[in-house]
Write a structure and sequence with these properties.
348 residues, alpha+beta, FAD/NAD(P)-binding domain, Helicase, Ruva Protein, domain 3, six-stranded antiparallel β-barrel, three-stranded antiparallel beta sheet, 25% strand, elongated
Length: 348
């Protein structure tokens, strides 16, 4: 997709929306949003563009079949056998994520029927489940400026820094979504998957130990359960105490060096066993889709059917969280639209 992304990059996309009244802003992590934080403004901009170009939009019509004769696109068939004839068809039906929005996986069905190879759809950018009961106690707790490391089969594979969220079933948030694809692949392969959350990544082990000692000196005559308020969010304290194995009723100055080191280790590597991902219906993005080897990368045209084009999440392309998937979809759509138009006009 490199050529397509260069042709219609993030600068071009933001400029497009600005022309139709949607100014954008860049937030932490390079994520771009409408200044208004109103998704409806994006829809209005796209609708205005269609109106300007004189495009007729027919909504509420279910496409049942893509019509092909002798290897050439002829149009589509809707419900009730109604045919819509056209020399070019672009399929941008999305993946299988969020089916309520219309992404029911129909594009994959069309592709298989037309002889395309479909890489098995699976969830990407998806929250992760855990068997750890203590996670439920932290439901709703959001953590900022933490690190999450993904361990597969006892080996660290990747570390992400940023924000995460504890839920009633496990963990979510930007850094969790980023590593979820790799976690899901490992789980489907039968491997053991664990997250280790570094709650204080800005401090080395030695620096964190000094920080804990300072707090322990400050609260030396208090019970351990009342000595962590400067270090941790309130809801996390009971969990960390339990996992540390240190007596919550014990006086701080009686905590041994070994116990303190154990707490420091926990602060730098809170272990969360991952058992599965949420379903593909809840994933932000679908991995898998039309094999890119069967698509012309210069035009997004099918190599199997003349006049057929693919764009967006229906194609086997997915990236990390942060707008990359949206940018790829817009860029593919931009190229597919131009190519389909050029092809159709050449037949006039």
């Amino acid at each position: 997709l490199q050529g397509i992304l260069r042709d219609f990059d993030n600068v071009a996309l933001r400029a497009f929306f600005a022309r139709y009244g949607v100014e954008t802003k860049v937030e932490r992590g390079g994520r771009v949003f409408p200044v208004s934080d109103d998704a409806e403004k994006v829809v209005q901009a796209l609708t205005a563009f269609l109106d300007e170009k004189g495009v007729e939009v027919r909504s509420g019509i279910t496409v049942e079949e893509i019509l092909v004769e002798n290897g050439q696109i002829k149009g589509v068939r809707g419900a009730g056998q109604k045919r819509y004839l056209a020399p070019s068809v672009i399929v941008c039906t999305g993946g299988s994520s969020y089916p309520a929005t219309g992404s029911s996986g129909d594009g994959f069905r069309f592709a298989r029927k037309l002889g395309h190879r479909v890489i098995t759809p699976r969830p990407a950018l998806v929250p992760l489940k855990t068997s750890k009961e203590w996670v439920k106690e932290l439901q709703g707790l959001a953590l900022k400026n933490v690190e999450a490391s993904l361990w597969i089969g006892g080996k660290k594979k990747v570390t992400e820094f940023g924000e995460m969220l504890f839920t009633h079933f496990g963990v979510s948030g930007p850094i969790i979504l980023t590593i979820s694809r790799q976690a899901g692949e490992a789980l489907r392969g039968g491997e053991q998957v664990e997250l280790r959350i570094n709650l204080k990544p800005a401090l080395s082990s030695e620096q964190l130990d000094i920080r804990v000692q300072r707090d322990f000196q400050k609260y030396s005559n208090k019970q351990f359960k009342n000595a962590l308020e400067d270090l941790l969010p309130q809801s996390l304290i009971p969990v960390m105490i339990r996992l540390s194995g240190i007596n919550p009723e014990g006086v701080v100055h009686q905590i041994s060096r070994e116990e303190r080191k154990r707490l420091v280790g926990l602060l730098h590597g809170l272990p969360v066993t991952i058992t599965e991902t949420l379903s593909i219906e809840t994933a932000i993005v679908t991995a898998g889709g039309i094999d890119v080897k069967e698509i012309n990368p210069k035009t997004m045209a099918s190599k199997r059917v003349e006049g057929l084009y693919w764009a967006g999440e229906v194609v086997d392309v997915d990236g990390i969280t942060g707008g990359y998937n949206l940018q790829a979809a817009f860029a593919m759509g931009h190229r597919a639209g131009r190519s389909a138009s050029d092809s159709a006009l050449s037949l006039v």
